[in-house]
Amino acid sequence: MAFAVSINVLASTVLANFEGFILVLHIIGFFAILLPLLVLGDRQDPHQVFGLWLNLGNLPTQGISFMVGLLGPVFMFLGADGAVHMSEEIQNAPTVVPWSILFSIIINGALAFAMIIATLFVTVDLETALKSPTGFAFMEIFVSATGSVAGATVMACIVTVMQLFANVGLLASCSRMSWSFARDRGLPGYKTLEKVNPRTSIPVATIIITTVISTLLSLIILGSSTAFNNIVSISVAGLSASYVLAIGLLLWRRTTGGIRHSTLSASQLTNTPGFELSWGPWYMPGTIGPAVNLFAILYVTIILFFSFWPPDSPVDASNMNYCILVTGAVVSFSVIWYFTWGRRDYKGPLVDASSVQRSA
Questions:
Q1: 215: exposed, middle or buried (C-beta count within 10 Å: 0-12, 13-18, 19+)?
Q2: What pLDDT is stored for residue 133 in this prediction?
Q3: Is 141:134 a contact under the CB 8 Å cutoff?
Q4: Partners of 260 in the β-ladder
Q5: What are the phi and psi torsion angles at 260 (to 5°)?
Q6: How confident is the model at residue 268 (pLDDT cuts 50, 70, 90)?
Q7: E strands, the chain, where?
Q8: Which pTM was predicted?
């Protein structure tokens, strides 16, 4: 986290170039792990890879086991909207951001699918991998496939370094989102969190608070792996709920005629309080758009439902999924905060005064 903070605060001017550098390393690291697995590892029977279904959590049915286990892959795709949170710092954001999200999903989805298939083929002894003394099954798989502790260590280091670099973008995206909401007076302590460095225009306060909270949450795994798994479930539940709300409101607006093609000039304001909602350059016309929105809502709602399920059965205090409890507490706090203090300050997204003057 210290590395991510230093890049975001001290080297913010080169953040975009650094992210491009990370993309190159991401591709190189992918092949640096994939090729040794394919070349050196023993091959698993294709039937075991594509036809074997396991229910290691002893859940009631194989179908429930599949849906609960789906949360892991879903979690890996939840950050694809990160570019949206950086849109105020992106040129031509209405076009660049959607393309960025689309290519991110396509590229990372293809790489992830290839990697998981290769990993499954070289996982000859799944039970041994799951009981790895390192606590991480992928490290045991690397050792088994390469036959070399040193080689497996290098491969594990690549994974660690890529996660280290990924934290830079995650911190940038999360801190900008927090700053944006604080600027709109929607967060407790917004008067402090909305401040930016006058020289670099970087929201240092939200970067620091985001880092502190993330670090404290990551320490939970030292005391309980169950609690840490619950954090993953909370991440899935929280982001899924936000997606359902956003997509649901979009579907409502588009089916009731609340969004239309704007007749205003490019210099005039739109999509802000007091102004009309209009389509940007990226949208799906006709019935395709509502159909995609409806499918997305159904999909995310199902994921949200299963994010509250425990991973094992029978359920007791040690393996209980407390996600629904924490989610309920967060929602309750948010509602109390809004009706007690928030509604007096939060009136929706704020608009820069200079923008209003230009639109007049």
A1: exposed
A2: 85
A3: no
A4: 278
A5: -145, 170
A6: low
A7: 259-260, 277-278
A8: 0.81
